Amino acid sequence: MEKLEVIGAKRLKGNISISGSKNSSLPILAGTLLSNKKVRILNLPKVKDIETMLLLLRSLGSKIKFNKKNKSVDIHNSKNIKTYVSYNLVKTMRAGILVLGPLLARFGKAKVSLPGGCAIGSRPVDIHLKALSKLGVKYKIIQGYIHAKAPKGLIGNVIKFPKISVGATENLIIAASFAKGKTILRNCAIEPEIKDLINFLRKMGCNIKWTGQRTITIMGVQVLQNLKYKIMFDRIEAVTYMIASALTGGNLKIKNVKPKIISTEINILKRIGTKIKIKGNEINIVGKRKIKNIKLKTAPYPGFPTDLQAQLMVLLCKAEGRSEISEKIFENRFMHAPELNRMGAKIKIFGNKAIIEGNINFKAAELMATDLRASVSLILAALTAKGKSIINRIYHLDRGYEQIEKKLSNVGANIRRIS
């Protein structure tokens, strides 16, 4: 099994180009199932979750062609698409549930395995299913599979999500794009990746409008068109490398980003003492010796994202004084804290709250990754620790970070993959 070897402490300096967004690519790939026309996707990240989603599409009958010259993927879905999604294809990835909406919208039936993914807390699919039922879907869960049918096709309705859910919002946007009549979705998630999905579907010919801050109105269509679409940048990857620069007293230029999208994160990093300059689609971030403590909570966009909580916790271990993070999205997302404590951190967990004592020096250790974002937090800590750290179970990491060891090596990190 592969591991990462990290030898700290190195100051990072140079340029890092940010890949396409995993969290944007997955619903967009699912959305291609609506169309029987050719769809070209550019800027897909080369990460395990994307490979899994492409395998899933292939298993359904999608014809997929890779174009190395312009780094794009062509997808063509004929009329002969299957509607059965095996557990083997979704056991490592929550996003498999996103094909349920388009399959029901286009073919009126689907048998989809309940998904797997990181064990960071309950992410129930009941919000997806109850919302789809309001569009006319009948469903049963039998032996771990969702058996769903829409006998009369999908019919538009007014749906208010009981709580903000990124996945349910995405699934219903895709499904309602092919429903008969008008659908109004309320209490929607408004993450940039959802806006990217909407831009993609509009270019394909769907009729989707924002009619309030968290309200979306969709008029169903039946005819779509060929299109070429470029995936947005990965904001989680971008801020992860910004935190790496702040941690190591580095000087990194983060390229291929839209700074406005990550303004919350930029403002927090400025508050705790990093020096940030923005020029067009580039961010220059310089780490300073003094890092200020802070109190914050994770929240749906435009709040601070749960996907960056583990990375920021590592930085706050170096801050002056005591910091506090409240995790408001998932109930089991502090699994990295015990591993950081093994490296010398002083983190105490009280329910959904973490108290972080600052001014610590990380010590190299052998470590165990528990989920995607926890994996990268251990790399960040190891970058600042003197000596050699080994990080096990990096298959979590490969689900969401493209060539992370290469990107970090190029800016001065001593990191390599070993067996």
Describe the protein:
- It is a single chain.
- This protein is an alpha/beta fold and 419 residues long.
- The chain folds into two domains: 3-19 and 233-418, Enolpyruvate transferase domain (UDP-n-acetylglucosamine1-carboxyvinyl-transferase, Chain), CATH 3.65.10; 22-230, Alpha-beta prism (UDP-n-acetylglucosamine1-carboxyvinyl-transferase, Chain), CATH 3.65.10.10.
- Helices cover 30% and strands 27% of the residues.
- The chain has 14 helices and 24 strands.
- The strands form six sheets. The protein has a four-stranded mixed beta sheet with strand order 22-23-1-24. A four-stranded mixed beta sheet has the order 2-15-17-16, covered by helices on one side.
- Strand 10 (158-160), helix 6 (166-176) and strand 11 (182-186) form a beta-alpha-beta unit.
- Helix 8 packs parallel to helix 10.
- It is globular and about 65 Å long.
- The protein starts with a strand and ends with a strand.
- The model is unreliable at 117-122 (pLDDT under 50).
- Kindly give the count of domains: 2
The order of strands across the largest sheet is 22-23-1-24
Q: What is the rounded Rg?
A: 22 Å
Average predicted local confidence, pLDDT: 94
Distance between the termini: 6 Å
Percent range of helical residues: 25-40%
- Morphology call: globular
Class computed from helices, strands and strand pairing: alpha/beta
Strand content of the residues, in percent?
25-35%
Low-confidence stretches: 117-122
Question: Key features?
Answer:
alpha/beta, UDP-n-acetylglucosamine1-carboxyvinyl-transferase, Chain, 24 strands
